[in-house]
Predict the 3D structure of the following.
Amino acid sequence: MWVPQYYPEVVSIVRKANWLIHNFSGEAVDIYNAVDYQHNHHVEGINYRVIVDMNCLQYLLNIVRRPKAHELSRVTAAYLTFFQIADIELDPTYAIYEKINYSDDRADEAISNLELFRGIDNHSLEELAAYALGYEHQLSVRPVISDNRESLRKRLLQYRRLTDWDSLYLCILAITNVATDPSVPRSKKTLKFVNWCISEFRISLSALVYAAALFGKFPAKKMMKYKPQMLRAEKLSMLRNMTWDLYYIDRYMKSWVNKEERSETMMLSADAGLRLTIELAVACQLAGGLDPLRPHLEHELQAVEDASINKHGAARAYKSEQWSSEYRDNLIRKYESELL
């Protein structure tokens, strides 16, 4: 196994940033050891993939687009350098869909972003490292142009929504409704949302943990992006932004739980709220319960656990005669009319 001379400096940057989210159990695991990844890939046949969120993708594109380097772009370049050394694939698929955000007029820009990303991903390792370490202030990179942009455009716009997006959007609407309800004390907001999931919709571990991270004792900054005083268009934009956060969390968890043999998925994000929520969701999955939420829901956890355990005995809309996509859409319209 091989690492370049500048490898220790690159690892120092990524360790300090600590943006990489994983589900590997065991205290001895070192997620910043490139040789371990190389061994597992070439000897054990394990393929590693890192989902990158839209912010990190933008930091990466700014390596080319901005005349002066930004610290966040240097950190992202250090991560890309590390991933290339470690034989880890960086996957921007969801970030590209977030950029499009189901708007036809954004598709061409999203494709240009994808082409530039491919160019950066295939760029000289030494030049990427030089940028990450501060020896270069801007890189000149040739995009990898798609063979058939129109065909790619059609594929990206093929579906009105990605799988589960509308359901997760409804969860965000319900969470926001609880967040802005002054009659519900903060210490009861997570339980209020969980009870809504049980009676009105369905339980989602990702959404439950998102609510716990938002309403709990140690909330990450800027998780609640919605503000009642915003203009309607801005409110809608913030609700969709929060939905994309929840979508990343949900996709990551499903890619792990339903992973293919000899494949591992990680996530790269500079967003503290996103990292906190995924880390809590992973901890709950590993623990087989909600106990990892105890520090966040100090006095509420028992009630949340009881509600979740006893959900099958409650009156529920889930899988009832009224359960349908139309039922969900009606709930979306109801909450949009209240929040927008």
User: Anything to note?
Assistant: Strands lie at 20-21, 47-52, 88-91, 263-268. The chain has 15 helices and four strands. The CA atoms of residues 25 and 286 lie 8 Å apart. The radius of gyration is 21 Å.
